[in-house]
Amino acid sequence: MNQNFFKGAIDWYINSSFHVAAAAVALVGVTNYYAKLEYNYSLLIFVFCATMSSYNITKYYEYVRTHIHFKKTLQSIIIFTIIGLIASIYYYFTFNYRTQITIFLFAILNSLYVIPFGKSKLNLRNRAGIKIYIVSICWSAITLLLPILEANAPLQPYVIFAFIQRFILTLILILIFEIIDLGSDDSQLKTLPQVIGTNNTKAFIYLLVVAFFVLDFYKRTQFHYQIIINLIVIASIIAFTYFADKNKNKYYTLLWAEGIPLLWFTLMLITFICKLN
Prior knowledge:
Keywords: Membrane, Transmembrane, Transmembrane helix
Number of strands: 0
Protein name: Prenyltransferase
CATH architecture: Orthogonal Bundle
Transmembrane segments: 12-35, 41-61, 73-93, 99-118, 130-149, 155-180, 201-218, 224-244, 251-273
């Protein structure tokens, strides 16, 4: 009974997009640390709620649109999604105009990602070769640009390097997902593993990992344990990439691989606490 309850709770946590939302908040925390920004809790709540609700809309929009009756678990997810949307709208109007404009632009992009358009009635999510770049750009903007813009901090050159690094990290995680989903993805999606194969995709990820590592030293803040933290993060990425295959279960990516941003922020938090002591 306890084991079934625990599994059900983990499944709900993943399916409700709470985990991916927590990962987004963790990346905002990484941005705050590097850019030396004070924590803006309104922004953290917004990022969590907006990420959670947008992912749920992406996943369940079509199903909810075509069905009337839902399971209790989905009903609860719908309720939290609505609450998240309301909270997101509320906090949106508390931000400065630069932050609002940025959010608005990426909200439009997210809408195109979900809602079908054109004669083919495809959304950006289902258009070959586009998905990974749209998601990576959105994550980079939301978790990096928003904290800086809302703090009215100047967009210095290091932000460009940080944006590219954040884009690379998101791209890596998506590619790991695509390797796992190779057996179930529609061939028309033309994901990178479908086009160049699993081994070549993994080799590409390893190259991206090198770029991720190097770019970290072009950021504004350098700290004593930076290399150690970076090595732990990239070792985790390499391990998840190396063992990724289409036979892995959903927890491999949806829980563990997607938790890499949480690992990154946790390691930074530990070093910060150790510095205070």
